[in-house]
Amino acid sequence: MEMKKHEINVAVVGVGSMGKNHARVYSEIANLIAVADINEKQGKEVAERLGVMWYKDYHDLLNMNIDAVSIAVPTKYHYTVAKDFIDHGKHVLVEKPLCLDMEEAENLVSLAKSAGIVLAVGFIERHNPVVRFVKEGLRNKKLGKIISASSRRVSSFPSRIRDVGVILDLAVHDIDIMRYLVGSDVVSVYTVGGRNGESAYETHASITLKFRNGVVGYVEANWLTPMKVRKLWLTCTQNYVEIDYIKQSVRVSEARVMEHDSMDLFRVPFEYNIREFSLKKEEPLKNELHDFLGAIEEKRRPLVSGEDAVKTMAVAFSAIESLNTGEVVEIDSRT
Q: Count of CB atoms within 10 A of residue 297's CB?
């Protein structure tokens, strides 16, 4: 979708794998003023390509004429960097996960709310057009009600990840999407998985989610598959829905049994109604940053607010706890 350019001054802190793409998109849709990164080679390369200033220390940006900032530094620094910008009146988008513990995440939400600051969190798949398409179908009751959801998010080991495991890096996306589409809180989590190789964190996890409204979700994520897969399947009361995030396509299916000979179950005829939707390609990151800047201009909540991200974090941390203890973790009281 075509969107206007935002007359908002922005900066990016951390221009590694994701951050440099934030900078690229901002240069197209807003006024990118500067980037900051402690890696001089990395920072200068992005700054020179986009024609902006590079700073080694993000503190140099705090008192500049900047309205908003994307924070894409390692997760362990999210809280400190985000708090500094909130304290200086800057709107903030923090890459997921918001923080490494619930107390810090909840504190950021409280600080942003008190300061009247937009705090958005980078759950990029929420901005994929296939999610918008399916959410609309559920809202309009064209698909029926969700009974269960199952996702697979697998690929090979990423060199960029150092401080979190596969649950906070990959599975958290599907936890967020399921919460959004199901429209209900998760009340319990059970996880099995483990660690392969020399990783300090889990490299594969299978997570079962129980929602308050009775829906069950299954999340599979790993860094062990020599193939990138990003898919979601929904069993609904009226249709079976298959979502491919990479292809940005949706398949909606239903079938009914035709008249048949009850003594010949080998040849039972079915009537299938299968609809394929290949959506117009959109860059989810561009949608995400348009939404963030639009929230600032329109004084509204972003699609993924800090409060929303805290609820997803509670589920993700409970999934890690379940993996470590081997027990079902009840999270009703945490959300």
A: 13
Task: Specify which residues 217 forms β-bridges with.
Answer: 149, 209
Decide which of 123, 139, 154 is a domain's last residue: 123
- Report whether 257 contacts 268 (CB < 8 A): yes
Note whether 152 and 263 are same-domain residues. Answer: yes
* Alpha helix (H) residue ranges in 155-304: 166, 172-182, 284-298
CATH number of the domain that 33 lies in?
3.40.50.720
**Axis crossing angle, helix 78-87 with helix 102-115, rounded to the nearest 10:** 10
Calpha distance 165→158 (Å, rounded): 11
Q: Which residues does residue 249 pair with via DSSP β-bridges, in sequence order?
A: 244, 278
Q: What is the pTM of this model?
A: 0.92
Cα–Cα separations (whole angstroms), residue 313 to 72, 94, 106, 143, 214: 17, 13, 10, 28, 21
Q: Which domain holds residue 147?
A: 126-284+313-334
Residue 98 near residue 313, CB atoms below 8 Å: yes
- Cβ neighbours of residue 263 under 8 Å, at least 6 residues apart? none
Segment 12-56, tens digit of pLDDT: 999 999 999 999 999 999 999 999 999 999 999 999 999 999 999
Give the phi and the psi of residue 139 in degrees, each rounded to 5. -65, -35
Tokens of 206: 């299978």
Give whole-number Cα distances, 112 to 39, 75, 301, in Å. Answer: 28, 18, 12
Residues above pLDDT 90, as percent of the chain: 86
The span from the CA of 269 to the CA of 256, in Å, is 9
With respect to residue 255, please indicate whether it lies within any of the assigned structural domains: yes
Final residue in a domain of this structure, among 99, 123, 147: 123
Q: How far is CA 275 from CA 130, 231, 298, 317, in A?
A: 14, 17, 37, 37
Q: From CA 167, how far away is CA 106, in angstroms rounded?
A: 20
